[in-house]
Amino acid sequence: MIPRWDLVVLPNLRYLECSLAVAKVLVPGRPLVELRVLDCQPDFSADLRGIFGTTPLITLTSLSIIPNMIPDTPLAYQFPQLSELRLDFPSDVHPPEMTAREKEARLTGLFDYLCKKWSYHPGMKQLKMNFGWDMTYPLSDLALQYSILTGSLLRVFPNICHLQMVEFAIWERSDTSDAWRIFIPGAHCARVIKRLSKGEPGLVDHQGYLQRLVAG
């Protein structure tokens, strides 16, 4: 068991990357700006209430964590300065025996649930999700991504300007009046082009962006 440390130890800690067990020791009472919790097991009983209790962490601007660990209190209350959020989903979010349609339904339901849980948070600017790389995964459908982005996510995070649901596609806009654009990092361009040219199922274009990528 890791002992609880008095605030005389690392009283000015601002950046922390650690397991949930260590976070429970080091987070309370310290002026953290960035926190990344590394646990990747789907422990549905584990959340951050044991770390923060009902006291908002007013200094935190960046948080990386499993969605199930986020408290039920609204993000804007628990983390009023939070502007960057990364969600690391456990590998069994979609069991392999599920069909593509079942995965898509579960995925949209998951986003609807999380958005209701998070509540309205206008301060959020960046949201990144780590589901892992899988070209047959429902989120390889860029039209589905756009639907989720402009639906439930924008209702909760109206000022978000950077969204990444999969490694190969990043949605960006300069401000809330700007149109959304898709950016594919150079490390993934060749792989996306190859699979798109082979007509592999699951990779769905949006407004012809991928076709323009293939055309060069």
Distance between the termini: 56 Å
Q: Tell me about the largest β-sheet.
A: 8 strands, mixed
Mean pLDDT: 80
Lateral arrangement of strands in the main beta sheet: 1-2-3-4-5-6-7-8
Strand residue content: 15-25%
Number of separate helices: 7
- N-to-C series of helices and strands: EHEHEHEHEHEEEHH
Structural class: alpha/beta
Q: Which of globular, elongated, flat, extended, rod-shaped describes the shape?
A: elongated
Low-confidence stretches: none
Number of strands: 8
C-alpha Rg (nearest Å)? 19 Å
Range of helix content: 25-40%
Describe this structure in words.
The protein has 216 residues and is α/β, with parallel strands linked by helices. Helix content is 31%, strand content 16%. The chain has 7 helices and 8 strands. It has helices at 20-26, 49-52, 75-78, 100-118, 142-156, 186-197, 209-215, and strands at residues 15-18, 34-37, 62-65, 84-88, 126-130, 162-166, 169-172, 181-183. The chain has an 8-stranded mixed beta sheet, covered by helices on one side. Strand 4 (84-88), helix 4 (100-118) and strand 5 (126-130) form a beta-alpha-beta unit. Helix 4 packs parallel to helix 5 (142-156) and helix 6 crosses helix 7 (209-215). The longest helix has 19 residues, at 100-118. It is elongated, with a radius of gyration of 19 Å.
